[in-house]
Each structure stands twice: as C-alpha cells, then as structure tokens.
Amino acid sequence: MSILISPSILAADFANLQKEVEMLNSSEADYIHVDIMDGVFVPNISFGIPVTEAIHSHAKKPLDVHLMIVNPDNYLESFRRAGAEIISVHYEACAHLHRTVQAIHSLGAKAGIAINPHTSVNLLEEIIADIDVVCLMSVNPGFGGQKFIENTYSKVSRLRYLILEKGSSAKIEIDGGVNLNNAPKLIASGADILVAGSFVFSSTNPQQTIANLKSI
Question: Where along the chain is the active site annotated (predicted)?
C-alpha cells in the first residue's frame, strides 16, 4: 500500500479557505488534516466546529480531525456532525481513554490516539487493538513549521512492533515537520500516514509537493 498523505489545513491561507480546500480536492491527498487547538492543552488557538463545518462543505476528501484540546469527550459528537471521519484525541488529555475510543466508534467515526513527543508508545499497549490510528507528534504540538524531532524514527519502529505484536490494524500517522528529506526514513520505519502542513502550503506548487510525497 502506498503512503497516505494528510495535508494540514492549519498552514493554509485562511482568507482563501475554500480555494485551498478545492486545491486539495484536486490533489493526490488522501485526507484533509484539521488541527483543533484550544489554547489550554496547547499554547495556541486555531479554529473550532464552525470552521470545520465550512471545510467539510467544500471537501471531497475525508476530514482527519486532530483534537488538541482538554475534555475532548464534550465535543466528539459536534465534530462528527461537522464532518470528521477520523477523530484523534490526545492520550495526555483523556482520563478514561477506552471510553473515549468507544464513544468515537459509536458515532461512526474512526478513532485515533495522538501522543506527544515525550509520551512512550508502550502506554498504548492496552488499547492499541481497539483503535484505528496512532498520531505520533514529531514536534511539540501547538504551532506549525517546527523542526522535526529525530527520535521519531525509533518511536515509529517501536510502535510498529507493538501493533504487530497485538494484532492491531492501527495505522501510524506522523504529524510535524514532515518533508521530502525525512519522509523516506519515516516510511521505512513503518509510517502509514504523513501529515504535512507548512511543507505543502508554503511550496510554490502544493499539488506537486503532495504528489512528490505520495510517490515515495
């Protein structure tokens, strides 16, 4: 299976959001990654449910919604109604993670768990068989355009081993600092989905950049 690409709309031109979404529709992207930040769990505020709905109204690609927020359980149903097909919550933000995963599945969405750079993949051992995606943060969450954390490669390898050991079908998603230099090694380590924001939207030809990532 070829690598899946999920461009992060956080890096798009918000003044031309419809145009940016339509560009992604015409690209080889597999998903549209939507970063939701509350200014509490992470030191930044992005956008919420109304903008997610607006993105969905123009999108022809599934929305891959990443909740970087406290108390995500309070908003699962709202983001599902807004068009989320994958909903990822942070391990660090959920006191009752299995219940949260069950709630996401009950809404008919795929359930993802995101973990920060300092969080060990071993903490997912008891739930890895129940989830669809693990989003490994390869930068500290909160801002786009950060430098890739090199330890991510070994983390991907350890997570791939855990997935195989537990018979899980979870896909490994990498979020942060992804580019053409590190993508091949990430894929070789076991990554399935690459999130790319600034690298795509700051390029002179975003569609070609997506195609380049897709062809690795």
Answer: 35, 175
Q: Does the annotation list 167 as a binding residue?
A: no
According to DSSP, residue 208 is labeled H
Query: 64, 132, 175, 192: which one is catalytic?
Result: 175
* Residue 73: active-site member: no
Domain residue spans in the chain? 4-214
Is 66 one of the annotated binding-site residues? yes
What are 25-58's pLDDT values in tens digits? 999 999 999 999 999 999 999 999 999 999 999 9
CATH 3.20.20.70 fits 4-214, yes or no: yes
pTM of the model: 0.96
Q: Annotation-wise, does 105 bind a ligand?
A: no
The burial class, CB within 10 Å (0-12 / 13-18 / 19+), for 107 is: middle
At 123, the pLDDT band (50, 70, 90 cuts) reads very high
Return d(Cα 136, Cα 123) in angstroms, integer: 13
